[in-house]
Amino acid sequence: MIVESVRTVKARFSEFLDLVVLEREQVTITRNGRPEAVLLSMSEYRGLHATIELLSDPEAMAALERGRRDFAEGRFIDDEGIEALRVEIEARGKGERRDDHA
After folding, report:
1. Torsion from C-alpha of 41, 44, 50, 53, nearest 10 degrees
2. How confident is the model over 37-60, as pLDDT tens digits?
3. Fewer CB atoms < 10 Å away: N or C end of the chain?
């Protein structure tokens, strides 16, 4: 994160805007040496709001906690399991297409 005075940011605003948008930097803007505001991209801003909404949703948080417990207890599908599911789904799809043409 970049920290700059309001005077510097005002003088070089386009440069800081490019840093924020193109390089996903965040700029803390200070006044009299104290942080007063943060400049961040719209995508970062939207992401923060989406995170806040998720953290505020009791059902989503319960699902997240179930997922954490499942993972801690070894109930998850590894890469090999995912590949096996992909192959099975692909085989089913081919089987359905054959039936459709019969």
Report:
1. -90
2. 999 999 999 999 999 999 999 999
3. C
Cβ atoms 16, 4 nearer than 8 A: yes
The one-letter amino acid at 35: P
pLDDT tens-digit series, residues 31-41: 999 999 999 99
Q: Which position has the token pair 């510097």?
A: 8
19: closest CA among 33, 8, 34, 30? Answer: 8
63 and 88 housed in the same domain: yes
Fill in the DSSP letter of residue 76.
Answer: S
Query: Domain span at residue 96?
Result: 58-101
- Is the Cα dihedral 89, 95, 98, 102 positive or negative? negative
